[in-house]
Design a protein that fits this description.
This protein is α/β, with parallel strands linked by helices and about 100 residues long. The protein is about 35% helix and about 15% strand. The chain is built from five helices and four strands; from the N terminus they run H-E-H-E-H-E-H-E-H. A four-stranded parallel β-sheet has the order 2-1-3-4. Strand 1, helix 2 and strand 2 form a beta-alpha-beta unit. The longest helix has 13 residues.
Length: about 100
């Protein structure tokens, strides 16, 4: 599923796919300054190490976001190469907030 088809299919308030893991790939400092409730902070530059150490369930859908979108796109590629089947690039945090995710 593409980011645009998923986002465009949403109605207010935004409902995330059941069991989805919300991943913030911004830096720890950016995360501390504000993030979506329930998100985990897996910074893009630490993502391979985090995946190796935590061995997450690749069957769960993932939604990745960053500040503006580029890091989320790179993270999607890393996650897909790691074996995740459903990864949605939600772009930047402000877009998610605008859609009702807090």
């Amino acid at each position: 599923m593409s980011m645009f088809s998923w986002l465009s299919s949403q109605r207010e308030p935004l409902q995330l796919p059941e069991g989805a893991v919300l991943i913030d790939v911004r830096s720890p400092m950016e995360f501390r300054n504000g993030h979506i409730v329930g998100a985990v902070n897996w910074p893009l530059d630490q993502l391979p190490e985090i995946l190796e150490k935590q061995k997450p369930d690749v069957s769960k859908p993932c939604i990745v976001y960053c500040a503006h979108g580029p890091r989320a796109g790179m993270a999607k590629t890393v996650l897909m190469r790691t074996g995740f089947k459903e990864v949605i690039n939600a772009g930047g945090i402000n877009g998610l907030i605008h859609l009702g995710v807090e």
